[in-house]
């Protein structure tokens, strides 16, 4: 049976100062692999698979919709709860990395606008949720990924090795004729960066997450995407510690969507029929990692 979003559980998972952790689950054998399609790649809805936390107007669960991605923003943490985006070759071009980190002035006036300088000397990277290299069709698309609302304080090894490897792998999948629905989030309090363990930075305005997760739904290029999700659809779920002491191999951290939902209180693929969710969310991916 699928879980319903509970505000109390959401607040406990995201707003309190207790650390969370999760044991990694070993992949199971025998899973089918996604095959590519010759269909034309398109740009599709970032929330096709659902709104995991029922984000709306709450300051701890504020829905932010941009052309490049959609997020649930937590003004009390100074970071997204999650960011969701569609990725296909239709989003990728030759635009160079803009590197124009800046505050997101579109957030409500009551929210603190995180500055790029808030990360200076913290020992943590300005870790993208939606990666720069996933949005290279136009300057505007790439620039949007450098808004500080799209960042979390991320340990350098985690960001530059483990996550970079997974992000690169995702782009190999779209080059093979697939489209992806990606949801990335973080939860808990306290991570270990270059300057050691910290629970907050920027004088307490930005919370350092304890865990960082991602769910990736892989489909051949096509239309009617939710209706094409079946019990054999490849779904990759990983959950990593926010630490410099982390394996550079992202496959080490594969887990189930169910486990991430249990830790966060979310219903991550809420638009997928429950009978299909029950199968794909309980399964650990065993596909290739490069």
From TrEMBL:
Q: Where is this region: Disordered?
A: 25-50
Q: Where is the DNA/RNA non-specific endonuclease/pyrophosphatase/phosphodiesterase domain?
A: 65-275
According to the UniProt entry, its GO molecular function terms are:
endonuclease activity
Q: Which UniProt keywords apply?
A: Endonuclease, Hydrolase, Nuclease, Signal
Show where the ENPP1-3/EXOG-like endonuclease/phosphodiesterase domain sits. 66-275
Q: Where is the signal peptide?
A: 1-22
Mark out the compositionally biased spans (Low complexity): 32-45
* PANTHER family per UniProt: ENDONUCLEASE G, MITOCHONDRIAL (PTHR13966:SF5), ENDONUCLEASE RELATED (PTHR13966)
The name under which this protein is listed is DNA/RNA non-specific endonuclease
The scientific name of the source species is Rufibacter glacialis
Lineage, broadest ranks: Bacteria, Pseudomonadati, Bacteroidota, Cytophagia, Cytophagales
């Amino acid at each position: 049976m699928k879980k319903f979003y509970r505000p109390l559980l959401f607040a406990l998972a995201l707003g309190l100062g207790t650390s969370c952790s999760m044991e990694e689950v070993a992949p199971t054998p025998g899973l089918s692999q996604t095959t590519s399609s010759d269909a034309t790649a398109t740009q599709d809805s970032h929330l096709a698979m659902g709104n995991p936390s029922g984000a709306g107007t709450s300051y701890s669960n504020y829905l932010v919709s941009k052309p490049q991605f959609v997020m649930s923003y937590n003004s009390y943490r100074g970071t997204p709860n999650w960011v969701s985006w569609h990725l296909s070759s239709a989003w990728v071009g030759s635009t160079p990395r803009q590197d124009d980190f800046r505050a997101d002035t579109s957030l409500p006036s009551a929210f603190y606008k995180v500055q790029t300088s808030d990360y200076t000397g913290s020992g943590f990277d300005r870790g993208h949720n939606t990666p720069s290299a996933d949005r290279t069709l136009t300057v505007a698309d790439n620039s949007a990924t450098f808004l500080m609302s799209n960042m979390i304080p991320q340990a350098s090894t985690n960001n530059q090795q483990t996550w970079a490897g997974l992000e690169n792998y995702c782009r190999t999948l779209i080059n093979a004729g697939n489209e992806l629905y990606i949801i990335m989030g973080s939860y808990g309090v306290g991570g270990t960066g270059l300057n050691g363990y910290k629970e907050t930075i920027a004088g307490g305005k930005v919370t350092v997450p304890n865990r960082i997760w991602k769910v990736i739904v892989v489909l051949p290029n096509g239309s009617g995407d939710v209706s094409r999700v079946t019990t054999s659809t490849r779904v990759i779920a990983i959950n990593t510690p926010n630490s410099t002491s982390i394996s550079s191999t992202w496959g080490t951290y594969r887990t189930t969507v169910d486990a991430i939902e249990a830790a966060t209180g979310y219903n991550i693929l809420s638009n997928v029929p429950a009978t299909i969710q029950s199968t794909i969310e309980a399964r650990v991916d065993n596909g290739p990692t490069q």
